[in-house]
Design goal:
mainly beta; 4-stranded antiparallel β-sheet; 6 strands; 67% strand
Length: 85
């Protein structure tokens, strides 16, 4: 789990005067097989943006909402050469 906070008082980083708070939770499972492995990962994130120019775009009419939710599922495959004998 990872919390984050960013205060952009003058809009120098994000081009908007805002305070962004985020919380991310990650679940990961590794499946080894010989010299390869698969990592299955699920990630959930919630972002909250407040301030005079804060918010996230929502819908086709480009209205702003103060929060957004994100859920990602990933499969990562890794391969390593076998150890020499």
């Amino acid at each position: 789990m990872r919390p984050e906070v960013a205060w952009d008082r003058d809009g120098r980083w994000t081009l908007a005067r805002q305070t962004i708070k985020a919380f991310t939770g990650i679940v990961e499972y590794k499946i080894p097989y010989k010299w390869a492995s698969t990592i299955l990962r699920g990630e959930y994130r919630i972002d909250d943006s407040r301030g005079p120019q804060g918010g996230f775009f929502k819908g086709d009419d480009l209205t702003l909402t103060p929060t957004q939710h994100l859920f990602i599922v990933a499969a990562i495959f890794t391969f390593d050469s076998p150890a020499p004998h």
